[in-house]
Design goal:
The structure holds two protein chains of two kinds. Chain A is mostly beta strands. Chain A has a domain of 143 residues. Chain A has three helices and 18 strands. By secondary structure, chain B is α/β, with parallel strands linked by helices. Chain B folds into two domains: 207 residues, Rossmann fold (3-Layer(aba) Sandwich); 169 residues, Dimethylsulfoxide Reductase, domain 2, CATH 3.40.228.10. Chain B is 37% helix and 21% strand. In chain B, strands 5-4-19-18-17-6-7-15-16 form a nine-stranded mixed sheet. A five-stranded parallel sheet of chain B has the order 10-9-8-13-14. The longest helix of chain B has 16 residues. Classes of the chains: A mainly beta, B alpha/beta. The structure holds iron/sulfur cluster (SF4). Iron/sulfur cluster (SF4) binds next to helix 1 of chain B.
Chain lengths: 256, 429
């Protein structure tokens, strides 16, 4: 089952669309999907008033693929709590894309704004462009960010990648911003480019930085070198300021 | 008539020992307050009457017309923003939150641009704090981090910290050690015993180094961190551990430098860990006299201290998403009500540009840059001079603001109640 949503216009006031997910669309026809509600500012509206809806075939949530054909840079929460199926966004997407999802796949053919994959429990997110801040992180005060599943970003990611992450995997092919892996307690983050002040207050988990650590925290112990993916990387343990035992690998640490 | 024990409604210190002389419903003299406080209490230029913008010009009108117009703008908005609350009472805050809920608006206060990181941090790691009174009576180690209170809170050092004398601090300045961390030598740093100059943006790293040393791992710390030599950091940790009662005050130098909430969380965690060795407390240096009050009221009314979005009916809080600067920067909101604050004077340019484009309502006693952009201007009485009510000092102590003279205008609370009534009427509920 394939559902194509084409935004009728570019939104300035964000649409909150946690209802856009295969779980809600499965088995429904065009009019059924058009009458699903989303919020536009403080008004509840039906999907059909904001999007042109096309439906091909029928199927359960696992077989449901949603295509958002256009700019979703003001559509928040797409795929929030989805459990299976697939969503493709042909453009940029707004905050909380795939937040709390536990299965299925989201493909963003553009940039993803902040909090993509927030507190994700399973499934996969693939961002072809850049990701904003708090990729795979936790909401304020939540003890666990990403728990399971995988997030891949082809471009760069913003600050606080994997903040409070407890499991799962994040791969950033470009560089990450400030304090990636902050407070992480498990899982693995791979940054192929550079990063600044990685792994602050890290308890457990693995961070691999194939590029440079542009600035290093003063509370990590150098523990020799190890070969990973056929590159020899420096190994550090920390964050010792909090008695952490996480592992940080890096190719190069910039001198002050 | 001489009135004693008046509160100064200006900065977060909320001095409560001001003496005011009133003659014919006019303040003629203010004693004990600092220069800033005196000037605030003696009065400024006021907005005389309500105004509405027509053909690009503000024209005077009645309260009724201005309130009706404001209510209409708000009711017809999909994403209204209600912002300000630096200098008004908790009673007005309460009304504002009710209005925001009714409208499905975002409500936010000036915390959003100063101490938001502090609130976020304390939600994560708590806040081992105390009152200013305890500090006056007990503290022998005073640390200011990124806070130039000699200018922002002029009486802070003389009333509560460096120069004050209390029950167990009878020697005053002589018995205290004052430490200042900042990126430049401020006026506060000039009267300190020790000034530690940090490289800009290095707060997080220096705090991590201090925690590492405190945890006994000084051998891991490099020879220089963030511009501070390791020996100096060790000396500071020793001093912290051997103090009788230490206190760390922090300002926007810490909250607004890179890593924002995590700098604060790191500082709070350091203080928490110091309590294994001695008594240590931490206090954010809050700016306007009742920013703290809004956070209190908002937290007990909605569960969150600021940046609350009622668009979905129930409150949703996510600084970075629902905070005013972010909402304005993205050009999201389609109207704004500004009360007891002047964002056109201190918001980033892009935010002010958006305020210019949307219908804007201002509630304030005095004209300012925001008035220039406003479509509806509603003048009010001055809180703490003409209106009484509750305010929270920076250390979270609630105090009662007094009414010293009779007002010439309606209060914030009254205006908000009337807008709320009108909104209900327009909505038909
Ligand atoms: S220190 Fe602050 S509260 Fe005290 S008098 Fe000065 S401005 Fe007023």
């Amino acid at each position: 089952m394939l559902v194509k949503l084409t935004p009728k216009k570019a939104f300035r006031i964000p649409v909150e669309a946690e209802n856009i997910k295969p779980d809600n669309f499965a088995g429904k026809g065009k009019s059924g999907i058009e009458s699903i509600t989303v919020c536009h500012g403080n008004k509840e509206v039906i999907l059909g008033s904001l999007f042109d809806v096309e439906v091909k075939g029928v199927g359960n949530e696992k077989e449901t693929k949603i295509l958002i054909d256009g700019d979703a840079s003001r559509i928040k929460r797409i795929g929030e709590r989805m459990t299976s199926g697939e969503i493709t966004i042909n453009g940029n997407v707004d905050m909380h894309c795939g937040a709390l999802m536990s299965g299925g796949k989201i493909i963003v053919n553009g940039d993803a704004d902040a909090w993509a994959g927030r507190e994700m429990r399973g499934g996969e997110i693939m961002v072809e462009g850049n990701a904003g801040h708090y990729l795979g992180a936790g909401y304020w005060g939540v003890e666990k960010g990403l728990r399971c599943g995988i997030i891949r970003v082809k471009g760069n990611a913003g600050d606080y990648v994997g903040e409070h992450m407890a499991g799962g995997e994040i791969v950033v092919q470009g560089s990450a911003g400030l304090l990636p892996g902050l407070n992480m307690s498990g899982g693995k983050i791979m940054i192929e480019g550079d990063a600044i002040l990685p792994c602050g207050e890290m308890k457990k988990g693995i961070m691999i930085i194939k590029g440079k650590i542009l600035e290093m925290l003063p509370s990590f112990r150098f523990d020799g070198t190890e070969v990973i993916d056929s590159i020899e990387l420096k190994k550090f343990t920390g964050d010792l300021a909090i008695g952490g035992s996480g592992t940080l690998y890096a190719n190069f640490v910039s001198e002050e | 008539m001489i009135i004693t024990d008046v509160l100064c409604p200006f900065c977060g210190d909320l001095c409560d020992d001001i003496i005011v002389e009133v003659e014919n419903n006019k303040i003629i003299e203010v004693k004990e307050a600092c220069e800033t406080g005196v000037s605030k209490m003696m009065g400024h230029e006021r907005i005389a009457a309500p105004m509405i913008r027509e053909n690009g010009k503000l024209r005077e009108t009645t309260y009724e017309e201005a309130i009706n117009k404001a209510a209409k703008i708000l009711v017809n908005s999909l994403r209204p923003l209600i912002y300000g609350w630096g200098s008004t009472t908790c009673e007005a805050d309460e009304k504002g939150i009710e209005l925001a809920e009714k409208l499905g608006a975002i409500i936010d206060n000036t915390t959003s641009v100063c101490h938001a990181p502090s609130v976020l941090a304390l939600q994560n790691v708590g806040l081992p704090s105390c009152t200013l009174g305890q500090i006056k009576n007990r503290a022998d180690l005073i640390i200011y981090w990124g806070s130039n209170q000699a200018e922002a809170h002029p009486r802070h050092m003389s009333k509560y910290t460096s120069f004050s004398k209390g029950l167990f601090t009878k020697e005053g300045r002589k018995g205290k050690h004052v430490l200042v961390f900042d990126v430049r030598k401020t006026t506060t740093a000039e009267v300190a015993d020790d000034f530690i100059q940090l490289d800009p943006g290095e707060d997080y790293r220096v705090l991590s180094a201090l925690r590492m040393i405190l945890a006994g791992g000084e051998d891991i710390v490099p020879s220089c961190v963030g511009g501070v030599p390791k020996e100096k950091l060790i000396e500071i940790v020793d001093r912290m551990k051997s103090s009788r009662f230490g206190v760390l005050f922090f300002g926007m130098g810490l909250t607004q430098s890179r890593g924002k909430p995590y700098n604060v969380a790191n500082a709070i965690s350091l203080v928490r860990e110091l309590n294994a060795h001695t008594k240590f407390a931490v206090i954010p240096m809050r700016g306007h006299f009742n920013v703290t009050g809004f956070n209190q009221v908002c937290a007990w009314a909605t569960g969150f201290a600021f940046a609350v979005d009622f668009a979905r009916g129930q409150p949703w809080y996510n600084p970075g998403e629902t905070s005013s600067v972010d909402v304005l920067n993205r050009g999201e909101c389609d109207s704004a009500l500004i009360i007891a604050s002047d964002p056109a004077a201190h918001f980033p340019r892009k935010c002010v540009e958006h305020l210019k484009k949307i219908p804007l309502i201002q509630i304030d006693p005095c004209p300012g840059p925001t008035t220039e952009l406003a479509d509806v201007v509603i003048p009010v009485a001055i809180t703490g001079i003409e209106v009484e009510g509750t305010a929270y000092r920076m250390d979270g102590v609630p105090l009662r603001l007094r009414k010293i003279i009779e007002p010439s205008h309606l209060s914030d609370e009254e205006i908000l109640s009337r807008i709320l009534d009108k909104v209900r009427e327009l909505r038909g509920d």
